[in-house]
């Protein structure tokens, strides 16, 4: 299709046209030069007059470029009153279903801005995209669903920690429009009986009760089972090993892994993918108090192993290790993936270009990589095991959960988590700390949370649903 007609809010407004083209900055198609366009910064909407606009997608039609182009159109909605649009590809360009999907996704999500409410209830300030054409409406439906999944994740992350804490996180998720998904919650008493010493140790310094939220998509025709484990530290002060004041306010984002799992489960459930997917969110608040866990404490984990605490600010791996152990014991998944805003070291190594990925099965990691590339949430492989395992040696317990120095911190954390993965279990670990917020290089990401990982997890589930083994 060379063009599609959509509307953001139905009404009587005249239809306006956006001409989309690809070019390096400063290199304009002749047709647009003749129309009076003098410059072509990527992702900026330029008025041409008579209800016509032009937007440079960039040199190529990648998912990221298309998402950002859609967000660029969304940015012009308020300035130019865009409601009824004809999106037109310039001469020489052609687009398939995936191209239009990502462009429309960016248009819907690009309109999102967080609006504070003194309630944990999740809201969506954006308007769904629609069309009078059935084929285009199907594209809009896909874009709307995927944008809504990301918005759920962003809403959870953006809410302040005095509003969103473990119990209110569970309450916020409960009314989401899942159609077939079953929700379950384990409280502190239940987790104590099951031996969640790592998770409960992190939360014991807080007045807020810890929770484990379980979302189970279990279709009758499921060929495989995938367990998604999300770190949900609703605020991370560092505990007794307290963080510095700089940027501590951003520690409300430390539940980005759990938020990504919830957003992805919304998409998976709506698409009714033929794969069982269990989302498990370990929800805690890490605070200093007279009851808080101390460096040097030894706790017993869900799998019976003892762990010496070195820094109470290395809390996420303790949460993940317990939930991973429980997920394997209860659900016996074919595939296991944990996702967490885990270490600043991942950002030091990779910047804002990739999330760090570790794991133990090349075929599974290839699927994760493909899902990330296809959804513009890229990952990069990093090592674990080997030298990093030596950092975990303890004189007082089966393991230390980390070292005293920062060398290889993302790899040490992944190695620790890997010790709780059972032999033969296909496993991947994503450290998304650097990707969770502060992403100005992408027009799709407004100020605040990105909810990185929602799209990757949803796409991975679709890929695995088609996997033979």
Q: Specify Rg, calculated over alpha carbons.
A: 23 Å
> Can you name the CATH architecture of the largest domain?
3-Layer(aba) Sandwich
How much beta, percentage-wise?
15-25%
The secondary-structure element order is EEHEEHEHHHEHHEEHEEEHEHEHEHEHEH
Question: How many structural domains does the protein architecture include?
Answer: 2
> Might you state the CATH topology name of the largest domain?
Aminopeptidase
Strand order of the largest sheet: 6-7-9-8-12-16-13-14
SS element count, helices: 14
Largest sheet: 8 strands, mixed
- What low-confidence regions span 5 or more consecutive residues with pLDDT below 50? none
CATH top-level class of the largest domain: Alpha Beta
Q: Kindly state the mean pLDDT as a whole number?
A: 94
Question: What this model shows, in words?
Answer:
The protein is an alpha/beta fold. The protein has 2 domains: 3-111; 146-465, 3-Layer(aba) Sandwich (Aminopeptidase). It is 34% helix and 19% strand. It contains 14 helices and 16 strands. An 8-stranded mixed beta sheet has the order 6-7-9-8-12-16-13-14, sandwiched between helices. Strands 1-5-2-4-3 form a 5-stranded mixed beta sheet. α3 crosses α4, α4 runs antiparallel to α8 (256-271) and α11 (362-374) packs across α14. The longest helix has 25 residues, at 134-158. The model has no long low-confidence stretch (mean pLDDT 94).
């Amino acid at each position: 299709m060379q063009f599609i007609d959509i509307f953001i809010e139905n009404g009587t407004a005249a239809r306006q046209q956006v001409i989309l083209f690809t070019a390096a900055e400063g290199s304009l198609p002749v047709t647009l030069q003749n129309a009076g366009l003098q410059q072509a910064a990527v992702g900026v909407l330029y008025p041409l007059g008579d209800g016509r606009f032009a937007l440079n997608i960039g040199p190529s039609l990648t998912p990221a470029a298309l998402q950002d182009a859609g967000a660029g159109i969304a940015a012009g909605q308020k300035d130019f009153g865009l409601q009824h649009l004809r999106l037109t590809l310039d001469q020489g360009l052609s687009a398939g279903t995936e191209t239009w999907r990502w462009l429309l996704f960016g248009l819907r999500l690009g309109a999102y801005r967080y609006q504070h409410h003194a309630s944990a209830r999740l809201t969506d300030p954006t308007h769904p995209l629609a069309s009078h054409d059935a084929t285009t409406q199907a594209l809009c439906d896909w874009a709307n669903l995927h944008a809504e999944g990301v918005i759920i994740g962003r809403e959870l992350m953006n809410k302040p920690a005095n509003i969103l804490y473990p119990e209110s996180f569970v309450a916020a998720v409960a009314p989401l429009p899942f159609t077939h998904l079953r929700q379950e919650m384990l409280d502190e008493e239940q987790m104590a009986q099951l031996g969640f010493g790592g998770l409960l140790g992190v939360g014991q310094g807080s007045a807020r009760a810890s929770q484990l939220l379980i979302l189970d998509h279990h279709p009758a025709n499921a060929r495989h089972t995938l367990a998604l484990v999300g770190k949900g530290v609703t605020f991370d002060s560092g505990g007794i090993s307290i963080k510095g004041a700089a940027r501590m306010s951003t520690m409300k984002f430390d539940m980005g892994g759990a938020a990504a799992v919830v957003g992805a489960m919304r998409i998976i459930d709506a698409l009714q993918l033929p794969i069982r997917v269990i989302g498990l969110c370990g929800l805690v608040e890490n605070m200093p108090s007279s009851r808080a866990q101390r460096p040097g404490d030894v706790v017993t984990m869900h799998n019976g192993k003892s762990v010496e605490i070195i820094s109470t600010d290395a809390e996420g791996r303790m949460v993940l290790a317990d939930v991973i152990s429980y997920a394997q014991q209860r659900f016996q998944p074919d595939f296991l993936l944990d996702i967490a805003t885990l270490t600043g070291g991942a950002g030091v190594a990779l910047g804002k270009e990739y999330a760090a990925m570790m794991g133990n099965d090349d075929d599974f990691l290839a699927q994760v990589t493909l899902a990330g590339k296809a959804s513009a949430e890229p990952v990069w492989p990093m090592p674990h095991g080997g030298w990093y395992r030596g950092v975990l040696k303890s004189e007082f317990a089966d393991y230390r959960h980390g070292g005293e120095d920062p060398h290889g911190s993302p790899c040490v954390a992944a190695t620790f988590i890997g010790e709780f993965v059972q032999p033969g279990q296909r496993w991947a670990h994503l450290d998304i700390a650097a990707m969770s917020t502060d992403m100005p290089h992408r027009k799709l990401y407004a100020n605040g949370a990105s909810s990185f990982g929602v799209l990757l997890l949803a796409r991975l589930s679709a890929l695995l649903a088609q996997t033979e083994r």
